[in-house]
Specification:
By secondary structure, this protein is α+β, with helices and mostly antiparallel strands. Strands 1, 2, 3, 4, 5, 6, 7 and 12 form an eight-stranded mixed β-sheet that branches. The chain folds into two domains: 2-196, Ribosomal Protein S5, domain 2 (2-Layer Sandwich); 201-372, 2-Layer Sandwich (Alpha-Beta Plaits), CATH 3.30.70. The chain starts with a helix and ends with a strand. 43% of the residues lie in helices and 23% in strands. It contains eleven helices and twelve strands. The model has no long low-confidence stretch (mean pLDDT 96). It is globular and about 60 Å long. The structure holds alpha-D-galactopyranose. Alpha-D-galactopyranose binds at residues 28, 32-33, 35-36, 166-167, 169-170, 332-333. Alpha-D-galactopyranose binds next to helix 5.
Amino acid sequence: MRERIKSAFAKRFGQPPEVMTRAPGRLEILGNHTDYNEGTVLSVAVDRAMHVAAGLVPGQLCTLVDIGTGSERTFDVNDLTNPQKGDWANYVKGLIVEMRQRSITVPAFRAILLGTVPIAAGMSSSAALEMAMTLALSQLAGVELPWLEAARIGQACENNYVGARTGLLDQFSSLKGKADSLVYSDFRSLQVENVPIPAGTAFVVVNSMVKHNLTNEYNERRQACEEAVQVLQRVYPGAKTLRDVSPAQLAAAEKELTPIVYRRACHVVGEISRVAQGVEALASGDIVQFGQLMFASHDSSRENFANSSRELDMLVKIASELPSAYGARLSGGGFGGITVHLVQAEQAAVYAKEVADRYRSQSGQTAETMICTAADGAGLL
Ligand code: GLA
């Protein structure tokens, strides 16, 4: 990849790049929609990433060339006021805006991009682009960004420029991943730890190939969580976020909430508790229990948070019928996209094929499958 983007840059722009970076996509393993509720998540940075080769250019015009898709963008570095709805370049333009707000001057630049994270499937291709570009742009601007600041710039780009009120999970995972490890993030303390992945297991990603549009539904779910907190504060004045409410406290306050808001809160509070149980299961080497928590997480997405889909439910049900799967669930925002399956490593390839076959005969759709390994987080190439 390094050689490919380096030579593509030289060929296109007639000189070598000044900086090359790589930032991975992620899988959310346990803890769904908990990040913006100051909860906890277990995730993993995957061996699929965005690669960037970049260099400064005189004047004001920036050029982005994605050699994977053949798509190109040119824009004025001083005219970023009009995001084009749905355009991938927003994930870069928004970063420049956010960096400026933090007094970082980004000069005009040009970049070659090459990504291997499936787009809009739920594996954070956008965070991979943001983090690879943030690293590259901070180098070109001559500033050393602390990792948390880089993550916040990516999140602010999504929140303010793209219009999705996402949390910090995707950026944390892309920056703090480690080979053979999960990323355990606490979005209250903003502490991150790496937790070893049990030996003999693999993650199989099965893309339902039915895409989601995160923005509307996602923002609505976030609003329901905020509404829940506002009401719960009357009963539990100390509660600042859903992180402060235990499953028992929530159940005791059920009648205070509308049925929908109660179910949304049940999902988040339940997920935070499942992450804690998941960490314990991993510490005691109980993969079977961990897999059950993944299935329970998906059930809660379907029943409480309504962020699953017919296709995702079908894939998780198929997993529950196959003996080599420990667990499976939707991963990320939801509303379509991928499922992640924790399976016996030596069965992974056979398993992936079996799931795809059954999915085809049940849904008529052709799923894409990938066996993913845990990779190191973002860095210079
Ligand atoms: C998306 C968002 C994350 C997180 C997940 C759901 O990936 O970008 O911040 O909220 O959905 O857990």
